[in-house]
Amino acid sequence: MAVTMDEIVSLCKRRGFIFQSSEIYGGFASTWDYGPLGVELKRNVKNAWWDAVVRQRDDMVGLDAAILMHPQTWVASGHVATFNDPLVDCKKCNSRFRADHVDLNAPCPVCGAVGSFTEPRQFNMMFRTAVGPVEKEDGSNIAYLRPETAQGIFVNFQNVQTTTRKKLPFGIAQIGKAFRNEITPGNFTFRTREFEQMEIEYFCRGEDAERLYKEWIEARFQWYLDLGIKRENLSLREHDLADLAHYSKGTTDIEYQFPFIDEPAELEGIANRSDYDLTQHAKFSGQKMSYFDQERNEHIVPHVIEPSAGADRATLAFLVDAYNEEEVKPGDTRVVLKFSPKLAPVKVAVLPLAKNKAPIVEVAKKLQKALIKKTDAVYDDTAAIGRLYRRQDEIGTPYCVTIDFDTIEKDNAVTVRDRDTMLQERVSLDQVEKYLLDKLEA
Ligand code: GAP
Description:
- By secondary structure, this protein is of the alpha+beta class.
- It has helices at residues 5-15, 36-55, 72-76, 79-82, 150-154, 157-164, 209-226, 276-285, 311-322, 358-372, 385-395, 405-411, 432-441; strands at 18-20, 32-34, 60-63, 84-89, 96-98, 121-124, 128-130, 142-144, 170-179, 194-204, 234-238, 250-256, 265-272, 291-293, 298-300, 303-310, 323-329, 332-337, 348-352, 377-379, 399-403, 413-418, 424-428.
- The strands form 7 sheets. The chain has a 7-stranded mixed β-sheet, sandwiched between helices.
- A hairpin with a 6-residue loop joins strand 4 (84-89) and strand 5.
């Protein structure tokens, strides 16, 4: 049976993946905090992305731009004029909805009143703030929290190009926070007002854009599969041409079938954005945003392919996809997160069979200290071994290593338990580090 959202939220809280933000004050409007295991999991997701799209590619470089940018950025990008959601209120119960999320001729989904909706009005989703202590009446010190990381890349196009001397095609990648005043956030971390994006702007010649657009769709789809997402839960959705922004030549979403949303939902969008963004910034800044092609002796404005992913959404998809409940024997069920070892917050748990036997504890702690230099290894002696195994299963630790009496008295070997098969193997103590590292790499 598919996991429910309540089960995921409860596991995340119980084991320290994700907490409700400001919980002691009753929580705060769809904001979430990543706990000790969640921060490791999300960091592993971001590192896996960075590794695949920056470190492993010689046509890509990274960037970390500011969240607060010159307000003209958002005029040039079109966000001030068009980053709007249509909003309606129910006049009876004051509930607020996105106009495109409710049937305006049907009764209010909250109070059932008929004909109670206001006319839709446009609501800009950017968070505004004032730079300096007082907001000036003429609005001249208004700034926005960036609603996407992408614009930090576009405005740095020339800086990156001149400092790295990259030739087309090349891309710039960035991971960072973005903020949107969503009217209807929800579904846990799926739609929030503060979230993290992992974005690429891949610059190319116009005639290469269509081919590179297809290549990026394939590469990004494969990334989710390589990290363990089940093929049957992933899909591609090409946007209808009629729905595209005027500058867009195509957009395809990578979608995931979350169990708590009826339709597959967007994890990442890959867009062929033509030369729109650089042209706009050239126009509004008065600066040159072009590229000089030495071989052809010509200046061009590059086109751009934009694979834009959400770090929180991807993390949620990896959590949901990894979740399994298994009957170990009749009446005995375990919860196990079958994370790819690359994403698992803890890779190895070293467990002493008896916490009051000094020689066993000594060997266990020494092994954990050696392992932690190479991988994420923990020591735990806070419960009996059966319960310790279950706890590690529940947080997705691929391997447990148990030090027992035989380790000390007989064979100088340890028991390695595999999370997924629950099979146990005896491995010599002086080989176990290599054994584990090889398995984690495989
Ligand atoms: N620069 C293009 C851009 O921002 P987008 O489709 O609006 O495109 C890209 O956002 C990704 O950011 C989405 O696919 C999603 O994973 C994530 N995202 C967008 N809004 C979000 C929200 N309110 N909460 C969580 N993630 C969000």
